[in-house]
Amino acid sequence: MLRLSRFVTALFALLLVTAALAAKVGDPAPPFSSVDSHGKTQKLADYRGKYVVLEWHNQGCPYTKKHYESGNMQRLQKEWTDKGVVWFTVISSGPGTQGFVTPSQEDQYLEKMHAVPTAVLMDPAGTLGHLYDAKTTPHMFVIDPKGTLIYDGAIDDHPTTDQADIKTSKNYVDAALTEAMAGKPVADPATRPYGCSVKYKGY
Amino acid sequence: MRLVCAIVLCLCCVPLSQGQSSVQAKHANLELLSTQTTNKSGDILLGVHFTLEKGWHIYWINPGDSGQPPSFNWILPAGAAAGEIQWPRPFRMQNSPTIADYGYHDEVLLMVPVHWSALPQAGSKSEIALDAKWLICREVCLADHTRLTLTLPISSGNKTNRASRLFAQAKALLPRPWPRQWKATAESRKDDFLLTLTTRKPLVNVEFFPLDPGLIDNAAKQRAEKTSTGAKLVLKKSDMLLKPVSELRGVLVIAGHAYQLRAPVVSQVALK
Predict the structure, then answer these.
(1) Is the pTM of this model over 0.80?
(2) Predicted ipTM of the assembly
């Protein structure tokens, strides 16, 4: 039985409130300011006019590995950044938890995996994660050029760790970006994200 | 010629499936169990017993915010077909304010009915194989898989006595049918569902486990209020819920007793 100190109780309550205020699809995406792995501050507001993808990431999670070891995530990053989409990989693992990396460790990982996000947002305090109510790795969000959240959920429709499932899966990120860029409504704007739980600090 | 015959004979003697009914996996031990000691029944119950290392868990059919339930692929003799996993009532696993999952700690027996359309011959043996895949987690998650095998019928003795106990314990944890004299309805409000339970007596310690993902917010506290005729439970809606739903399905646990719940949803007409 955990004995919650008053501080932790207050933090718990604050996090619950933050999660309760987390945006739903169709709402403006919560504005953020987050430091990337090169020390640069990235603000959502700076990218108004572009599509932005947020990809929650934990390199040790078997679901993340499914999409990286197969090259699937890198393929998505390359295809869409080539089309002008801003792709942020976000790491909200707390210090000492799985997925937590130093900036140089992350650079090494990106090089080894040939991953090409626009930037990697380092979120060890979990602020950005809680702002978006990111639950799993991977958990994908797509924001349109007007700043509206148009997709929140799973990367695809096969919630497994098997790479073999990728080729027969419907990729929700591809679908959302393709549909939105064609001026169509996103057919599946909110799906249940699958993966390992985000390893927030303190838990 | 004689040498060739001898070799062929030897190969025929090698069992086709070299397997085990008990396997040590990552942080878990799995056993394929049965209480079937004769060939006389066309309907049997098999069970996959997971014994988990302290702190590790596996998931319910609706795993909640993260995770994945075990999946079974049965390799059965001709004429036999496996049904669905009979899930014992789940337990809430919440390590953070915003993420809650449903599953099992310590140990769980997942029972599966098998139906034979034609009984095997008296005295014959049936080979059962199972390819099981699952996710097991503590602070990290591991995907694992194994093959388990069993030959039926099995001889009665200590093993079947232990298996019988495990099956009896698991059956006691299966959600029971909702009593006919009780009522359950849900009202869809702006941010939550109000589940009203009418059970003829006030209820305490009520907890709802949704069968369908994406309807309720798994991590939100379920505010329960006992009434003179039962209880009311406030279930916060999930952010993913964009369309109206007609029914809330799941497991309702009342002071440790689990029931299958299906509550029709009545939409509150929220016109100004």
Answers:
(1) yes
(2) 0.88
